[in-house]
Each structure stands twice: as structure tokens, then as C-alpha cells.
Amino acid sequence: MNPNTPVPNNGNIPAPLVRPVPPEQLSPKAVILQVFRLRYVFRRYWKLILSLMVIGGVIGKFIDISEKRQPIYNGGITFNLGSGSSTSNGMGDLGALASAFGIGSSAPDANIFVGDNFMIYAKSRPVIEKTLMKTVKISGIDTLLVNYYIQHSGIRDKEWEDNDTLRAFRMDKAKKPEEYNKDEITAMAQIYTRVLTEMGVSQPERKSSFMRLDAFMEDEALTKVFVETHLKTIEEDYRYKQTKKSREMYDILVKRTDSLRSLLTGTESRLARQIDQNQQVVVAQARIEETKLTRNSTFLSQQYFAAVQSQDNMRLSLIKEAPLFTEIEPVSLPLYKEIRTSIAAQAGIVLGLLISIIIIFFRETYRSIMQEG
Questions:
Q1: For residue 65, with 0-12 CB atoms within 10 Å meaning exposed, 13-18 middle and 19 or more buried, which class applies?
Q2: Whether 192 and 333 share a structural domain
């Protein structure tokens, strides 16, 4: 009996409707049959699958053996960035307390040495280039850090392998970016790009003010020296930017003090000569000139000592405003060495499996077409 033939109706019981499965949908039975069919396909082609996977694995293993993989040394410094003293009042303290609880203004802090701003600043190109242009002592030899980096970071054997000009590149002296020639601009740009992948700045705990500067490089001495020198560069640059206004005022005070000292010295010399000339003179005009010089000398002396005092106060202010970088955990040797394992063998096995599946698919498709024909 055909399942699609309607059942005769006796007038009391409605005939059930049997709906065939639409051709675009798969029934559970069809899915099970396909699974069993794949098992038979695997039985026919298991040698092909196994052979291609073994060949891929052997090729990948050969690549692993032939490829020289340098160990990576991990080194870092944990430090605390303490800013200079500021004239914050009670409202400022209340604002800081409100910000801690998420209350108040949502505008970001404009200080480049706070929070995420500092992390971006520490990885900026101008700061990193200043670090690379520092002269460091490694194994008792003074060398430019950028030249030591070129020799021991692996950049010549990887990024510059096919470029003879860059492989022979070397900085003859420390330079500012505006002094670079064409080759130096190209080399420093590629060095900066590589350094970005070999360093990191993080905050170990969000509630803590501690920061951590890490480097991951192929040479142990390079890793240690780079981290220490970069932190020193950040400290120097911070001090320069943080005390810029105070230093300008201090320079003005120094010039004013020098000018007053020169005027005071000249006035005192003229006063001394005038006193010597007036010892045997009773003319009033000469006495008036002596009185005038005495008054000028007294005034200049007061101005000079006031300027000296202001200069000393400004010098103390510069000391107070200077940042305080406290090393919590310095770099200590030996550094942690990480040897990164290659995945060429695993990739070869997976690639062999994919190729075998593609071959089986086309062969089975061709076989099905031929059988239908």
C-alpha cells in the first residue's frame, strides 16, 4: 500500500494525513545513513588519509629541526611613579575622593603621566628613540644602545635579511630625529615597530599605583639594559616636562641675580672711589654724589639679596616638583628564559588531513556522477 494513498473513510473516523518529508529537509534516517556511508568511505581511503598526514607531519618536523629558534628572555621593573608636590586644596582632595567612587566630572585627566596616558606615553616613538640613543655600558664596554640592539635583537637576520643596506646599518653617534638621513629614518622606523612587539607597560593591580615595564628580547643583557635605560629615560623626560615652567622662572631669576650683582659691583666700586676722593674735600657737591651712590648701593644690595633668596626658593621648588621613581622590584639576573616551540609538525598533520579530505571529496563526487551516468 502506498503511504501517500488516502485511507478510506467510513464516515465516523477522519482519515489521517500522511505528509512526505520535503526533499530539502533531511530526516534522522538519512543522517544516520550518511554517517554509515562516511564510515565506508573512510575504510576505502584510510591509507590515503594516513599517508598524507604522516607526510605532512614529517615535513613539519623537518622544518622544526632546521629552523633555529632563539630563546626569549623576559625582564621587567616594578616601580611607583610619585609626582611632585602640588598646591591642592581641600576641594581638590574632595574631587579626588569623589572620582574614586565614580562621582563627579567624567572628563579624562590631561596629565600625560597618569593612568592609561602614561602607558601610551611610555611606548611612544620619541621616548623609545631617546632610549635607543643612550650610551650604555655592557660587559664593560660603552656602546650606543641602538647599535647593540641591531646586533643582538635578531632584526638583521629576520626583518633585514634581504636588505644589504640595512644589514650594514650602524649609527655613528647619538642623533635627534631631525638629524636623521634617509637610511636612518627607514632603519629607526623598523626598529621602533619591532620594539613595540618586544615591550609592554602595565598596571599589575588597578587599585594600586604601581606600574610595570617589561621587555621580551632574544638577548639577556639587551633585555636588562633596555628596561633599565628606558625607565631612566622616562624619568628624565618626566622631570623635564613636569618642571618646565619652574625652570623657565628659575632661568629668569638667575639672569636677574647676575644683572643685579653686576650693577651692585659697579656701584660699590664707584662709591669706594668717591669716598677716597672726598677724604680731603669739603665741597657739598661731592658729598651729595657720595650720598647718592650710597643710596643706590643700599638699594641694589637689598634687591640682590632678595633675588638670591628667590632663586634659592625656586631651586627648592624644582626639587619638590621633580618626580620620584621608586623601584619596587628591579631587574635581577638570570632572567626567565622562554623557548617558544614551533607548531610546524602539528600544522603539517592538519594540512595533510585537509588535503586528503579534498581529494576524497572530488573522487567520490566523480564516482557518483559516473554511476548516475
A1: exposed
A2: yes
* Displacement of CA 115 from its chain's centroid (Å): 14
The residue length of the chain stands at 373
Q: Is it true that the peptide bond before 126 is cis, omega within 30 degrees of 0?
A: no
**What residue spans of 243-343 are helical by DSSP H?**
244-277, 284-321
Query: Is the domain of 153 the same as that of 208?
Result: yes
The per-residue pLDDT for range 66-79, each reduced to its tens digit, is 666 778 899 889 88
Whether residue 292 sits in one domain with residue 148: no
Domain identity same for 165 and 114: yes
Exposed/middle/buried for residue 243 (C-beta within 10 Å: 0-12, 13-18, 19+):
buried
Question: Could you give the CA distance from residue 63 to residue 341 in angstroms, rounded to a whole number?
Answer: 12
Q: What is the pLDDT of residues 103-147, one digit of tens each?
A: 444 444 455 556 677 788 889 999 999 999 999 988 888 999 999
Assign 50 to helix, strand or coil.
helix
Domain region containing 309? 246-321
Residues 154 and 293 reside in one and the same domain: no
In a domain, 285, yes or no: yes
Residues 6+ apart with CB under 8 A from 155: 149, 190, 191, 194
Give the distance from CA 331 to its chain's centroid.
18
Rounded to 10 deg, the angle between the 28-66 and 344-372 helix axes is 140
Q: Cell numbers 571529496 correspond to what residue?
A: 361
**Predicted TM-score of the model (pTM):** 0.60
β partners of residue 138: 141
Number of compact structural domains in the chain? 2
